[in-house]
Amino acid sequence: MGRLNSRSAALGRGRDSLAESHIINIGQGPRRGKKRTVKGENLYNDLIEILNKDSYKKGQKSAIELTEKIKRHLPAFITSIKMDREIMKKVVFGEEPELYLPYHGVNVAALGVGVAQGMGYSDDELQRVALTAFMHDVGMKELPSEIWTKKGGLTPAERDAIRRHPLSGYELLKPIEEVAEVVVQEHERMDGTGYPHGLSGGEIHEFAYIVGIADIYNSLTHIRPYRQKRYSSFEAIREIVAKEKGRFPASVLKFLIASFLLPVGSRVELNSGEKAEVVEGNRASLMRPVVKITHDKDGREYDKPRILDLDRNQRFFIVNYNLASKAGLD
User: What is the spatial distance between Cα 209 and Cα 248, in angstroms, rounded to a whole number?
Assistant: First the structure.
């Protein structure tokens, strides 16, 4: 039933040649990728609109039609995730409204692709992961929105209804075997503590582990009706490592951490007191990314921000990982 494949992918630095010296000024030369950014953001919004329009349609026919609509956008979606960093900034740092499911679906798909890409998945596999992620909460459409938007605790009956949504999703998507299998397994856990069937280990499809970890991460990094705290990416990863280790394969956790411990757009404080934004990750040394220093220790914005490669200049390091991040959303 499950297809837990062992994969290995080198955790190289995985960065572009952004900083040719320890510190360089930015703002020189033409801006690149502007058309890609606009197209990518439009695609992000279009996919949310597709999910939003279908959120009130019930039944198997509607679910299958939604899957076909999403499929048509998958090649462009994968390309956008790979080429347009603004999309992932929107996913990680953007807001989700009270009726959050359409946004959550797109965000989990993007995050799942990010993890799977690190694991060495082909473009075809990335599209398949994305499709299952887009559809992972389709069973929630069968529930009254008053349940999943309820503030405060759920009654036992409401909790049972929520826990049945993977089964509802499976029934809706049964004609699409792989998608249905992942949807019903997305809340299963490696140690057998998940639901609805208490599967464990290799009984669980690897895509379900990827979608499951992306689901948790996205929920933690956004406000929910039952929780007003919004975790920073760093806090969310720390929470996941503390509570989910042993419930997900090490490979899935490893690439979630590598991709999202300090994602591009994170706001940090350096030991110099200066404030900076992460502009390039460093998978070989996660705590030493390339940053853009934007403010002095007194909070005054620099006229000319500087790029600093923390790996090449060991004199500087991050002391605060949890500054409010609004990068790319102005």
Answer: 6
- Which DSSP category does 300 fall into? P
Reading the block at residue 35, the tokens are 């058309």
DSSP state of 315: T
Report long-range pairs for 201-206 (Cβ below 8 Å, ≥24 apart). Answer: 201/2, 201/4, 202/2, 202/3, 202/4, 203/1, 203/2, 204/2, 204/4, 205/1, 205/2, 205/3, 205/4, 205/178, 205/181, 206/2, 206/3, 206/4, 206/5, 206/249, 206/252
| Tens digits of residue pLDDT in 138-159 | 998 888 777 777 787 788 888 8
Closest CA to 111 of 257, 225, 326, 246: 257
- pLDDT (tens digit, 9 = 90+) per residue, 253-266? 999 999 999 999 99
Task: Round to whole Å and give the CA distance between 263 and 147.
Answer: 32
Dihedral angle computed from the Cα positions of residues 315, 236, 12 and 81, in that order, rounded to the nearest 10 degrees: -120
Estimate the crossing angle of helix 60-83 against helix 101-118, to 10 degrees. Answer: 50
6 vs 64, which has greater pLDDT? Answer: 64
Domains along the chain? 32-260 (1.10.3210.10)
Q: What is the DSSP letter of 248?
A: B
Taking alpha carbons only, the member of 67, 42, 220 closest to residue 130 is: 67
